[in-house]
Task: structure prediction
Amino acid sequence: MTIMANILLIETSTKACSVSLCKDFNIEFHEEEYDGPNHASSLGLFVERVMEHARQNDMMPDAIAVSEGPGSYTGLRIGVSEAKGLAFGLKVPLIAVSTLKTMCCHVMFGIDMPDDGYYCPMIDARRMEVYTALYNQALQEVKPVRSEIITEDFLREELDSHPIYFFGDGSEKCADIIKHPNAHFIKDVRAMASDMMALAIQAYNRQDFVDVAYFTPFYLKDFVAKLPSNPFEQK
Result:
């Protein structure tokens, strides 16, 4: 049974900063900006506006959802700190939502993809490196979250048998390298709070919450230090 809930959504893992309030399956309030360095000053103002709307419309949050990364250290730290404070102060549970799956949700509701198609969200890193994963249409991992230096052979085996849709700010620099006929590139896809809604509601109904005191996000700097040199290579 689906439980209807009001969930405050916070996304700060990349250059975009956004906050939304959803009631059931509708976005009732949304604030966003794209100037990455301003997360610290913008997020508090956005949350204040959302909470004012919630109080005026009897929509106080039943849970707080925050992007867990992968993403930038500074952005995630700011977003998670705000989310923890809200969850603790309001005495509501905290939900962690994958940044890469959030990006998939943006694409999922915007294109008509073949049944055997895969999603490949990409977050930009240095030079030709990206942080990525590969998902089927049920958002099940085909390839886990990895750091990858993109070459013309990236996902060649999967591309030979499946159309793959690449998106995110990391995909733009890959379009001239990945030339397979099954490779499709979608522009202007960002991780936004409003796209967290379906994943957050799903987690809420499963009672899939994280510990407010001990939860830490998926920082890229920690992620990179633990990766093998060729993480997409089959063992």
Summary: Confidence is low (pLDDT under 50) at residues 224-235.
